[in-house]
Amino acid sequence: MRNWGKWVSEIREPRRKSCMWLGTFSTPKMAVRAQDVATLNIKGASAILNFLELAGVLPRPATLSPHDI
């Protein structure tokens, strides 16, 4: 949680030192779901998710580029 009360989410890109910024969110649950979406799309079936039961309904980006994720 940031000082101004918002939650942020980012994920480390595979085989890179950089992080992919996922956004700023008003609740911790929203931030974790954004991380689940990115993890699922980057790692596929081997992804370890926070909300495994929601894997089938999470949105899918058009491509795997950081911009779309």
DSSP strand (E) fraction? 15-25%
> What's the Cα radius of gyration?
12 Å
Percent of residues in helices comes to: 10-25%
Helix and strand pattern: EEH
Number of strands: 2
Strands ordered across the widest β-sheet = 1-2
Spatial shape: globular
What are the low-pLDDT stretches, counting only 5+ consecutive residues below 50? none
Quote the average pLDDT.
88
- N-C termini distance: 21 Å
Structural class: alpha+beta
Number of helices: 1
What's the main sheet like?
2 strands, antiparallel
Topology, element by element:
Blueprint: E1 7-12, E2 19-25, H1 28-43
Antiparallel strand pairs: 1-2
In summary, what is this structure?
It contains 1 helix and 2 strands; from the N terminus they run ββα. It is an alpha+beta fold.
Q: Would you mind describing this structure in some detail?
A:
With 69 residues, this protein is of the alpha+beta class. It has one helix and two strands; from the N terminus they run ββα. The protein has one helix at 28-43; strands at residues 7-12, 19-25. Strands 1-2 form a two-stranded antiparallel sheet. A hairpin with a 6-residue loop joins strand 1 and strand 2. The longest helix is centred in the middle third of the chain and has 16 residues, at 28-43. It is globular and about 35 Å long. The relative contact order is 0.18.
